[in-house]
Structures are given as structure tokens and as C-alpha cells.
Hints:
Blueprint: H1 8-25, H2 34-40, E1 42-43, E2 55-67, E3 77-92, H3 104-122, E4 126-129, H4 131-134, E5 141-153, E6 163-178
Parallel strand pairs: 1-2
Antiparallel strand pairs: 2-3, 3-6, 4-5, 5-6
Amino acid sequence: xxxxxxxxxxxxxxxxxxxxRKNITAQLPSWADTGYFSASGVNFSYPDKPxxxxxxxxxxLNTRDEPLMPRGGRTSxxxxxxxxxxxxxxxxxxxxxxxxxxxxxxxxxxxRDMAIHILMSAKNNIPILDYYSEGLTATTQLGSLRLRNxxxxxxGPHVDPAVRRRRLVVTLGYxxxxxx
Length: 180
């Protein structure tokens, strides 16, 4: 029998990453190269892998527990978790295919607006899927992530003056039941 957990960090991270990638690539603006974006427009391993432009990057900053008391004499405990993410939008005046992009600043602002739109549209219904048991074809919904906070956070200039970035810090909440 494969390892399973009610949700587990892997299920949560994989679910949010896959949900974000599918929803963001479904809303690409006309200036985006859809062939590029649909394949690799969201970077999950930045900064370990170099970015291509334009693109998004997603990094799980932390997950913390807020224990809740067991109810009604049950031996199980519910833990409320908050998972914080950095979602960054990247563009460059010298994009990855060559040439120049005078609209790099417009591009990252539009990408930021796209990310905010899909997150606010979902709010309390980002599915947690069972990647532990079902692998990359997961369809069984175990629960939902709920948007708790969304901040458009300033960043300093990039070391490459041609690179433009907008950063969102997203906090998601979910509950896990232990000792079932």
C-alpha cells in the first residue's frame, strides 16, 4: 500500500502548484507565447534553475501549525496550518527568445493582476488532491485550501537592470486531522 496522509505537505504543495499552473496558463494575454507558457511558464525550482522570461516562480516560504484542542473526548487532534508562498512574476527587456521587450514593466503588472484574479476567484476552493496515492494523475479531492491573505510585496531592483519582477506573498490555510 502506498504511503498516505490525510493531506500532508507534499499533497498541499503539489496541489497548489498544479492548480496555479493550470489556471494561470488558461488566462494568458495575447502578448504571451502560449507554447512556452503552457509547458514551463511556472518555475517551481527557482532559484536552483535559471528563469526564462516571461514566467512565474512559486516558492513555499514556510508552513506553520496552530494546534486546536480535540473535541468531545476524541483522541484525534485537529491542526490548523498556514502555508505561505512567494509567487513572483518575471519579465525582461531582453527576453529569452532574443530581441527586445519595451513592455516588460507592463508584462509583470499584467501577470501580477492575472495571479491576483485567479487567487481571489478561488478564495476558499483550491482543491487538495491525493498525489500520494494517485501520482501525477491525482483527481480525488481530500479537502480545500483557503486564501487567508494576499500581499503585493515590494522588491528591490534585480542585479540585471533589464529584469522586472512583481512579488505576491500568499497565505493559504487548511486543517489536518491527526490520529484518525
